[in-house]
């Protein structure tokens, strides 16, 4: 079967254990998917169709169409929670970074090079040999 061949011969660590199946479906306009890969996938029209060998920027592929999922528009209620979760996550990340940046020194930061030189003066540097 196609899945058995994918498990045996595929070099893709992501899809190989799943018999060549992708983690998620791809969309025709999905910018995160290699253009050549995407176009080849959408040339397959019937479930079970197999592509010729196609080369993308990630390597060589043979694709088999497993399922056609019709495009649909989600309601606001369906996407509200994931959107709110993402906004909250970004807000928390921004607040975290802003807090740490507020602890950083401001414009009056100066480096006392003479003090650094005095600290380093007389310091010994030792090296440790590591076995090869």
Description:
39% of the residues lie in helices and 5% in strands. With 132 residues, the protein is mostly helical. The protein is elongated. The relative contact order is 0.07. The model has no long low-confidence stretch (mean pLDDT 87).
Brief summary:
By secondary structure, this protein is mostly helical.
SSE order: HHEEHH
Number of helices: 4
Rg measurement, Å: 27 Å
Question: Helix coverage percent of residues?
Answer: 25-40%
Summed over residues and divided by their number, the pLDDT gives a mean of 87
How would the global form be characterised?
elongated
Give the low-pLDDT segments: none
What structural class should be given to the helix and strand makeup? mainly alpha
End-to-end C-alpha gap:
47 Å
Strand content: under 5%
Sheet having the most strands: 2 strands, antiparallel
For the secondary structure, the number of strands is 2
Q: Order of strands in the sheet with the most strands?
A: 1-2
Provide the fold topology:
Blueprint: H1 2-9, H2 35-43, E1 54-56, E2 59-61, H3 76-102, H4 113-120
Antiparallel strand pairs: 1-2
Q: What are the key terms here?
A:
2 strands, 4 helices, elongated, mainly alpha, about 130 residues
């Amino acid at each position: 079967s196609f899945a058995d061949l994918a498990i045996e011969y595929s070099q893709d660590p992501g899809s190989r254990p799943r018999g060549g199946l992708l983690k998620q479906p791809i969309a025709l306009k999905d910018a995160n998917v290699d253009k050549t890969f995407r176009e080849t996938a959408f040339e397959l029209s019937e479930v079970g169709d197999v592509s010729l060998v196609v080369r993308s920027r990630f390597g060589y592929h043979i694709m088999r169409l497993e399922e056609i999922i019709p495009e649909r528009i989600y309601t606001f209620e369906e996407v509200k929670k994931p959107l709110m979760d993402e906004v909250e996550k970004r807000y928390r990340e921004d607040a975290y970074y802003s807090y740490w940046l507020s602890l950083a020194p401001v414009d009056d930061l100066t480096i006392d090079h003479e003090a650094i030189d005095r600290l380093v003066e007389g310091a010994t540097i030792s090296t440790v040999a590591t076995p090869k």
